[in-house]
Every structure is written in C-alpha cells, then in structure tokens.
Design goal:
73% of the residues lie in helices and 0% in strands. The chain is built from 12 helices and no strands. Helix 1 runs parallel beside helix 10.
C-alpha cells in the first residue's frame, strides 16, 4: 500500500476533529476570531518544528511561493467554513465543504496524473458518499443539546438561514480544493520541503485574516481569553493535518490523497453524533458507508 493513503486519511481525520471543535468555538466566539488565533497557534507550532528539524526550504523557495498562494485559498475557506458550522448543522455543512475533493481530482485528470481503475472506483465511491450525506438533512437531535446554539449577543450573523449556510459551505469547498492543488504543486511540482510549503500557507493565511479583520471588524482580533486553550488546540490540529497532507502529496496521486483529505466530514459527523446528539437519516448513513468503502478501495489500490 502506498504510504500516501494512510497519510492522506490521517490528514482527513485530523481536519475533521479540528473542524468540529473549531465549529464549537465559533458558536461562542466570532468565526474570524477562532480562525485567526487558531492559525497563530498553528504558526507557533510550525516555527518550533522548523527550528528543531532545520529543514531546508528547497530549490529557490518555489515551494514557499505555492504555499503562500494556497494559504490565501485556505484562509478564505476556513472563515467561511467556521461561520457555516456556527450557523448551520455540522453534519450537513462539513460534507458539503468536502465536495472540494472534486477540484484536485479534476486537476489530476487535466495534468494526466490518472489513478488506477480500483483507485478510480474508490474516488468515485468516496465523492458520491460525501454528496449523498450533504444532500440529506439530519432529523431532530436525539437529546437536547443547549450548548449547540448559545448565540451570544455579540455573535454576528443570522443563524438558521439555509441558503446563506449553503453558500458559505460551497465557498469553503472551493477554497479547500484549491489548497490541495497548490500544496501538491509546492511539494511535487517544485520539490519544496513540506514544512516550508505549509509555513508559506500559514503566513499568507494569517496576513489575509488580519487584513479582513482590520478592514471589517477589528474586534475580531481581540484575545479570546480563557478559550485560548481550545482555540489553540484547533490550530495545532489543523496545522498537523496540513503537514500530513503535504507529505501524502509527495508519494501519492493527487486525486487519491485529495479525496482522502476531504473525508474529514466522517470525523466531524461522528463527533457531532456523539457529543451533540445530531442524528443522521438513512441517506446520510448510507453516504458515510459509501465514503468508507471508497477509502477501502483506495487503500487496496
């Protein structure tokens, strides 16, 4: 089995856990505040890793350049995603955003990097499962979960608007998909060191988030207080997932690792089921099973 498969799957599971807890924090703090300070924490962890490992940046720093471009895409996607998780149902928003897997698949096909027949079936099964989960709305929660929607007075937005939430989820899907493509270009196309590619992405995403906050709501950059611990863990988990995906892109097919990285809704949905009591309909359960079947096919390819 290609090592890119477990690395890609691990990145998806890490993203899913980070996204769940990031969405929970976005129900208590503005989404931009969570995105900014989590990215700061991830950047600090990344700097420590660079100092310890002393990894060279690669040929003429081209990987850093691709990372900078990817950071813009991921930064926009992250704000939209956290805002969508805060306003909508996690087990719907997360799968819709995972449709960004279509972007690296299309890019791989256009560049001639086609997966094998078995891997192709796995890609198709996984994407179909994600779409199936996203098209079916969950039923009423199994038990009351008052912590789901505290909606503090300072929290912007109008929770519960399906059209607004769908647009944010689709926008995040596009941003995440482009991030996969740019990271792959930085690690394989330019042979940049994964640590430096992700460092470039983190730097540009922080600059972009800071600009958005300064132009719009400067209060979004305020210190999150006692919630800095959970917010920091979200950022560290997100950065770890980015690194796992970057290393997966070196050894794996872009279409395959892109889909595996996009399976983060599985972790998000399971955590939402266990911790929030969100039930899944029959169609959503079938979608999860189909997505996991796709993972099995990709692992066997």
């Amino acid at each position: 089995m290609n090592i890119g498969v477990p690395l890609g799957l691990s990145s998806g599971l890490c993203w899913g856990a980070a996204d769940f807890f990031g969405g929970m924090q976005s129900r208590r703090l503005p989404a931009l505040t969570v995105a900014f300070w989590s990215q700061v924490a991830g950047a600090v962890g990344l700097l420590l890793a660079l100092a310890v490992l002393r990894a060279p940046p690669g040929p003429i720093g081209a990987g850093i350049g691709w990372g900078l471009v990817g950071g813009v895409a991921s930064g926009c996607a992250l704000v939209l995603f956290y805002r969508g998780l805060a306003e909508g149902t996690m087990s719907v928003v997360a799968p819709v955003s995972a449709c960004g897997a279509i972007v690296p698949v299309a890019a791989a096909l256009l560049t001639g990097d086609q997966p094998s027949a078995v891997a192709g079936l796995g890609v198709l099964a996984a994407i179909t499962g994600v779409v199936l989960v996203s098209r079916t709305r969950p039923t009423t929660p199994a038990r009351p979960a008052p912590a789901r929607r505290p909606a503090p007075p300072r929290q912007p937005g109008r929770p519960g608007r399906p059209g607004r939430v769908l647009v944010m989820a689709l926008g995040s899907a596009l941003g995440f998909g482009l991030f996969y493509v740019f990271v792959d270009a930085g690690t394989t196309g330019s042979r940049g060191a994964p640590l430096w590619v992700i460092a470039g992405a983190r730097a540009s995403s922080l600059m972009m988030l800071s600009t958005i906050a300064l132009v719009g709501r400067r209060s979004a950059l305020r210190w999150p207080g006692r919630r800095i611990g959970p917010v920091a863990l979200v950022g560290i988990g997100d950065t770890g997932a980015n690194l796992l995906f970057a290393y997966a892109a070196i050894t794996g097919n872009l279409a395959v690792v892109g889909v595996l990285g996009s399976l983060y809704p599985v972790a998000t949905v399971v955590l939402a089921r266990w911790l929030l009591g969100e039930r899944l309909s029959g169609g959503q359960n079938a979608g999860v099973v189909l997505a996991l079947t796709g993972v099995g096919l990709l692992a066997a390819a």
